[in-house]
Specification:
The protein contains 16 helices and seven strands. The chain is an alpha/beta fold and 376 residues long.
């Protein structure tokens, strides 16, 4: 395990490669100083014109939303600044998972003047797939992210909407190189991201699910996208100030309700992410046990790159909060997929705990072998 020399990104992140000790996200952030923003804005105008000229109905673009910080800022930017007419698509978790905060935040976004279609996959299928994802990948959100990412292009094709706006280019702004397309704005390789695995759902079908049960989990094929003439564009590529906290601050000023949990309850000292449900802190904890970094590291890296804190200050914050999660959130998840806490921790230790990075002290208690900012 090696850390980036500038931020606290470890090289254990899937599909990332450092160049001369610097992570892709820091290299990209440093390159922003040299960007010709007038030229990039012209590129954005060409994309907007494409959407407006190729629309077949009322909508010239489509945006996947939860009502959270990123989707709120994106939707308002597209509507108010780009003067487009987007259709919003929200893939909603089942009632057992979604929070009142999430419902209110989506309502807040719609009240800004948007048409929105909400999709609610069958809760029983959702639960079974979360169960499978947890046991097979130690990532219960693998199936739900398939549905989240697949629903938007599926509706774009169905409604003959030519343009999808997505948020960050994770190849540039996080370091997941497999997503990189023909340019920094091109999102048509989104299917290659680690969680989506090129849209491969054989791990679902081999568990006996019928086609009519999993249509929302099937990412459109390359041929389907080409036949529809569909373009997916990373909107964050065109913003100088794209960041987790900037997006959170902007959206909070437009009515977003943020978390008030304690940082050590959710491994999140800011509280502007995953507002529509409470199991993401648990999933970020699992990511931490697999790769040695979680949500706090993501926030801190943004702050370091933007000059808000030093790397040393970031280390202190990460050591305090990264990988933390309240037993309340863990138990709620366990109740949903119908396992007990002992079984949860057994699966963690047998399926995904990275014993190169952690040593077991007792059930659910794992000690870091690495030093934050230095590595092993």
């Amino acid at each position: 395990m090696i850390y980036c020399a500038e931020c606290l990104q470890p090289d254990t992140r899937p599909n990332t490669k450092f160049i001369k000790g610097i992570c892709p996200a820091c290299n990209y952030n440093n390159s922003l100083k040299l960007v010709d923003w007038d030229r990039r804005n012209n590129e954005l105008r060409e994309i907007v014109d494409f959407g407006k000229k190729n629309k077949q109905g009322a909508y010239d673009c489509i945006i996947g939303v939860s009502g959270g910080k990123d989707s709120t800022r994106q939707a308002l930017f597209v509507k108010e600044h780009l003067k487009m007419h987007p259709l919003l698509i929200c893939l909603s978790p089942p009632p057992q998972e979604v929070t009142n905060r999430g419902v209110e935040n989506l309502s807040n976004l719609i009240n800004h003047g948007f048409d929105c279609i909400s999709i609610n996959p069958a809760p029983e299928t959702w639960k079974k797939l979360m169960h499978i994802s947890f046991y097979k990948y130690l990532n219960p959100f693998k199936s739900t992210e398939l549905a989240l990412f697949s629903s938007v292009p599926r509706f774009a094709i169905t409604y003959q909407i030519p343009l999808i706006w997505w948020g960050e280019n994770s190849a540039l702004q996080v370091g997941e190189s497999s997503v990189m397309g023909k340019s920094g704005a091109d999102g048509n390789n989104l299917r290659n991201m680690n969680t989506l695995n090129r849209g491969d759902i054989s791990w679902i079908t081999e568990n006996g699910f019928q086609e009519n049960e999993i249509i929302q989990y099937r990412f459109p094929s390359v041929d389907e996208v080409k036949m529809a003439g569909l373009r997916t564009i990373f909107l964050g590529y065109f913003w100088k100030d794209w960041s987790l906290i900037n997006n959170g601050n902007y959206s909070a000023l437009r009515g977003l309700d943020v978390r008030n949990n304690k940082p050590w309850e959710m491994g999140d000292h800011v509280g502007v992410m995953a507002l529509d449900e409470d199991w993401t802190p648990m999933n970020q904890m699992l990511k931490y046990f697999k790769f040695g970094f979680g949500r706090t590291t993501e926030y801190v890296n943004d702050d370091i790159r933007n000059g808000n804190i030093t790397r040393e200050e970031g280390i202190e914050i990460v050591e305090l909060y990264d990988g933390k999660c309240s037993e309340e959130f863990i138990k709620s998840f366990c109740d949903f997929i119908q396992i007990n806490l002992d079984e949860f921790w057994r699966v963690v230790e047998e399926k995904g705990l990275n014993t190169n990075l952690f040593e077991i002290e007792s059930t659910g208690q794992y000690k870091r072998k690495f030093k934050v900012g230095i590595g092993l």
